[in-house]
Automatic annotation (TrEMBL):
Signal peptide: none annotated. Residues 6-337 form the NADH:flavin oxidoreductase/NADH oxidase N-terminal domain. Pfam families: Oxidored_FMN. InterPro entries: Aldolase_TIM, OxRdtase_FMN_N, Oye-like. GO terms for molecular function: FMN binding; oxidoreductase activity. It comes from Lysinibacillus telephonicus. Gene3D superfamilies: Aldolase class I. This is Alkene reductase.
Length: 350
């Protein structure tokens, strides 16, 4: 058996990555709940993965404002103290020869005023989500429909958070436009019933993601901006696009218009066929010539094969990287990976 493709170094724009392995963004909730700052435990957690040889680390979701918060212990990038705390993380990663980007995450309607400083959730339309808020275990609050002024303000918050990410020493940012959170709420006909320029047909609904991307790219550069998007929604488990290929074509049209170069299509099951006997990432590759980060319950063998076939360029791993801080060395040495156990692995940072 030849060398796993994941272990090869690669050049992505100005980033020299030691491997083609990406650490997927995963909510850990170990930030200070009151200040949104991160401590030495987070520094050591990310440092250990960079030292192991992870090519690119995407942080857990970092909120651009207090109203973007969807659970306890979420870090932010909207105060100087938050910026200073993240700078210790980025310095540690760079000392180990790694690269790290900050994922900017606004949950939109998927929260409660107890988490947002007393403010109601923000959303494109005042449609309450079903289910319970993560860890708070209370029903989601009814969101406030965002005015045009609110939309402009949130875009400014993304700009400020992206600027702060650069001040903190991050190599770039990822915009979380997936999984039913704020940006994806604008994308979807389920959560967006607006009749203005941000509602209506799919391309109109994609106006918000387009404006956020344009603003962030202007701030940090198109070579330092990643967009994560998906069909799946965390709060609507059975949701599927009626026509996956047409939806993907619309998203790709927007990504081409703004000039982004790296995309992160997200799905729970990488090998699942979604349309015309093709997987989600194969459909994306059909219309996208740029860099694709693959994700979705991958194992090293499936990921290596997908890279060799040209479906993806980089492969992101989540739970297996929580459970195996020595993930890269285990692949190199042919050792088995430890199985992820939520009851144990979510309780600690190691």
């Amino acid at each position: 058996m030849g060398k796993n493709e994941l272990l090869n170094p690669t050049q992505i724009g100005n980033w020299h990555l030691k491997t083609k392995i990406v650490m997927a963004p995963m909510t850990r909730s170990f930030a200070n709940n009151n200040t949104g700052t991160v401590g030495e435990d987070i520094v050591n957690y990310y440092r250990r993965r960079a030292k192991d040889g992870i090519g690119l680390i995407i942080t857990e979701g970092i909120i651009p404002s207090p109203r973007g918060k969807g659970t306890f212990g979420v870090p932010g990038l909207y105060t100087n103290s938050q910026v200073d705390s993240w700078r210790k993380v980025t310095e540690a990663i760079h000392e180990e020869g790694g690269k790290i980007v900050a994922q900017l995450w606004h949950v939109g309607r998927l929260t409660h005023r107890e988490l947002t400083g007393g403010f109601p959730p923000q959303a494109p339309s005042p449609i309450k989500a079903d289910g319970l808020v993560h860890r708070l275990r209370k029903p989601y609050d009814t969101p406030e429909e965002m005015s045009l002024e609110d939309i402009k303000e949130v875009i400014k918050e993304y700009i400020s958070a992206a600027r702060n990410a650069m001040k903190a020493g991050f190599d770039g940012v990822e915009i979380h436009g997936a999984h039913g959170y704020l940006i994806d709420q604008f994308n979807s006909e389920i959560t967006n019933k607006r009749t203005d320029e941000y509602g209506g047909d799919l391309l109109n609904r994609l106006s918000f993601i387009k404006e956020v991307l344009k603003a962030v790219i202007k701030e940090v550069g198109k070579d330092k901006t990643i967009i994560r998007f998906s069909e799946i929604k965390d709060d609507i488990p059975g949701y599927r696009w009626a026509n996956p290929e047409e939806n993907i074509k619309a998203f790709i049209q927007v990504f081409n218009e703004v000039g982004i170069q790296i995309i992160h299509p997200s799905t729970n099951h990488f090998t699942e066929k979604v349309s015309n006997d093709m997987t989600f990432h194969q459909l994306v590759r059909k219309y996208w010539d740029g860099i694709i980060i693959g994700v979705g319950n991958l194992n090293p063998e499936i990921a290596s094969k997908a890279i060799k076939e040209g479906t993806i360029d980089l492969a992101a791993f989540g739970r297996s990287l929580i459970a195996n801080p020595d993930f890269v060395h285990k692949i190199k040495e042919g050792r088995p990976l430890k199985s992820y156990q939520a009851a144990i692995d979510l309780k600690y940072l190691y």
